[in-house]
Request: fold
Amino acid sequence: MRSWDLLPSHWSSTTKAYRVWSGQKLTGERQSSARLIIVCGLPGSGKTTHAKQVEEKLRAVRFCPDDWMDALGIGLWDGANRERIEKLQWKLAQEMLALGHNVVIEWGTWGKSERNALRCGARALGAAVELHFIDAPVEVVFERIRRRNRESPPIRLEDVTKWAEDFQRPSLEEMALFDAGSLTVLTAKEKLGPEEVEHE
Reply:
């Protein structure tokens, strides 16, 4: 079985079944010091800034599809290529985790089923898994996207509002499924700075 078969064939908010590597047993007992950090949130919420800080602090390998798409000259809204890149990144991430390295996944992971698949896949390799939810008001997200001016055509406030409606916000019950160190970063207006709320 190819390792990226662990992922649903189509990312969506619909819960899908997934498989773990044959021969791997999913238990609560950890066999590795590796740690997977899932950084989730809307575009413009501050995911990249936070993910880079975690990357440096943990000496982790960071996987961000936007970086790869920019390097390859692929439009950020090319969904088919984004899915292929995320599958490849997850394959590499699993190899890193199996070798004991820390990994940061910066995909947005809007759906609970996506986060569940990553958590269970990493736990099957003996890794700890943290969820870092980067939360920001719609107005802040829209202003950041407008300033960076990377999207074509330009994103409208109505688009961001619809994203916020579609995004499945991690509940306290979901956060409790992840390991210690999981947190919510509340990003308000720039002058106020982010506030971190850790979940035990």
Summary: The CA atoms of residues 138 and 161 lie 6 Å apart.
